[in-house]
Design brief:
Order of helices and strands: EHEEEHEEEHHHHHHHHHHHHHHHHH
Radius of gyration: 25 Å
Number of helices: 19
Largest sheet: 4 strands, antiparallel
Structural class: alpha+beta
Number of strands: 7
Bound molecules: carboxymethyl coenzyme *A
Shape: globular
């Protein structure tokens, strides 16, 4: 980093142009910032594997006394990460280099999780070992059950999920002290396996059904559907298409780089909080209706249109004119193109409904609404396309999962991503505790007025 101060604008222009030419000759790339004081400061440009560029402003305040202001961190790279690549303009999503379309078609949720967390697709032996660990870790500690008993039947499932995940650390004092992957793998197996047992039994609690235990003979998704829908006198046997639909849902939700909940997990982890505390915080971030709550909001909105029998013109008009109203499942902070996950989910929904012989008016309406929005100038000019949540709820509905459980299912899917990011950050020696700054806009100094004088 270098800095110099010049007063004359033409001198500044000449100086910068000379510096840029010198950089080109030397084959280096720097960015230059000129402040109103005439101070010119050089910042290195960091370039990612896919060519994205970032101005490294790590020393900005130290060198210039100013900070950047970026609400929502939309232009801020908070870390370097090798896990997931998203090109929002082109509608591209890859996990560790593998296109999401290939993983959704040919991979399974557990091997996708292993890919995200450890960086490579597992071989047969590694996959079998991890599957065995998942099976060995699927039973919840009985001490966690009172949380379920104390929870009101109409309570919000995400609240209970967050509480139980956070409470797990009370039973795992050794697993929260991670020194190497040797210890980390059992921790991952425990969380990945038990989040499914917790989620299914949150559903049973809110339904008033008896507790269900996992069946060690079943695969990950089959086991989850079994715990969700079996009752002691009537076991549930999902079809292959149902299992594959859930598997695909989980794979498509497994990671999405620095989204709100993953950033939350990283921020909590940056304070050296353990993985249980970090993922529990991730659940609370995911709970928001602009994030993991959106898929249920899509279904509610579509069902509302059907019930009103007025068609969707009113909703489209409202979405275009009322800034506080959104067409749910449309638009994305990063994708300015069709979300590749929405494309896959639409065809999964098509296949699932056909196999289950379900004629869902909500799905028919969604497809019509999509077409109308995609032809509408308002949506075209703002690059608003269906996002991952537009069709995912149709699939969950067909799997007999009620809307209050939708964000919980999203959380199971997102678990590998949260874990992968927490681990990546943990192993990165350059990690610092997250501590954004602010521009203070409150009162300047004033004198305290005692209570009797107010
Ligand atoms: N319906 C109508 N108008 C919209 C919508 C929508 N769904 N989304 C964005 N816009 C408009 C917005 O009003 C603004 O218009 P103008 O330029 O005239 O002010 C413009 O598009 C840009 O909107 P923005 O708020 O700057 O966009 P954003 O990138 O901050 O918002 C979003 C992204 C996902 C929060 C937003 O598109 C939205 O609220 N969508 C509906 C909720 C939803 O489906 N959420 C799921 C997101 S994907 C899953 C996840 O991340 O968990």
């Amino acid at each position: 980093m270098s800095k110099q101060t010049l007063n004359n604008p033409s001198e500044i222009g000449a100086e910068i142009s000379e510096k840029l030419c010198a950089d080109t000759r030397e084959g280096v790339r720097n960015a230059y910032l000129v402040l109103p004081s005439g101070q010119i400061t050089k910042f290195p440009l960091s370039v990612g594997a896919e060519g994205e560029q970032a101005v490294d402003i790590g020393e900005l305040r130290k060198e210039t006394g100013v900070i950047t202001l970026d609400p929502g961190f939309r232009n801020t790279g908070a870390c370097q990460s090798a896990i997931t690549f998203v090109d929002g303009e082109k509608g591209v999503l890859r996990y560790r280099g593998y296109p999401i379309e290939q993983l959704a078609k040919d991979s399974g949720f557990i091997e996708t999780a292993m890919l995200l967390i450890w960086g490579e697709l597992p071989n047969k032996k590694e996959r079998a070992e991890f599957r065995e660990m998942l099976t060995n870790n699927e039973m919840l500690h009985e001490g966690l059950k009172p949380h379920f008993d104390a929870f009101p039947p109409n309570g919000k499932p995400m609240a209970l999920l967050s509480v139980v995940l956070a409470s797990m650390r009370g039973y795992e004092p050794k697993l929260t002290e991670i020194k190497s992957d040797k210890n980390f793998k059992p921790l991952v197996a425990k969380i990945m396996s038990q989040v499914r047992t917790i989620a299914a039994n949150i559903h049973n609690k809110t339904k008033g059904s008896p507790w269900q235990y996992p069946n060690p003979d079943f695969g990950y998704c089959q086991n989850f559907l079994h715990m969700l829908h079996s009752i002691p006198n009537k076991p549930y046997h999902p079809s292959e298409t149902e299992i594959k639909a859930l598997e695909t849902f989980f794979i498509l939700h497994a990671d999405h780089e620095q989204n709100c909940s993953t950033s939350t997990v990283r921020i909590v982890g940056s304070a050296k909080s353990d993985l249980f505390a970090s993922i529990s915080a991730g659940v609370n971030a995911l709970n928001g209706k602009l994030h993991g709550g959106a898929n249920a909001a899509v279904i509610r909105q579509l069902e509302g249109i059907l019930m009103s029998k007025k068609g969707f013109d009113e909703i489209i008009a409202k979405a275009k004119t009322n800034p506080d109203f959104r067409l749910m499942g449309f638009g994305h902070a990063v994708y300015k193109n069709y979300d590749p996950r929405a494309k896959i989910l639409k065809s999964v929904a098509e296949k699932l409904l056909e196999e289950l012989k379900i004629s869902d008016p909500v799905f028919d309406l969604a497809k019509k609404l999509e077409q109308v929005a995609l032809d509408d100038e308002y949506f075209i000019s703002r690059n608003l396309y269906p996002n991952v949540d537009f069709y995912s709820g149709i699939i969950l509905k067909a799997l007999k999962i009620p809307t209050n459980m939708f964000p919980v299912i999203f959380a199971i899917g997102r678990m590998p991503g949260w874990i992968a990011h927490w681990r990546e950050q943990y192993l990165d020696e350059s990690t610092k505790i997250a501590r954004p700054r602010q521009i203070y806009t409150g009162h300047t100094k004033r004198e305290y007025v005692s209570a009797k004088d107010r």
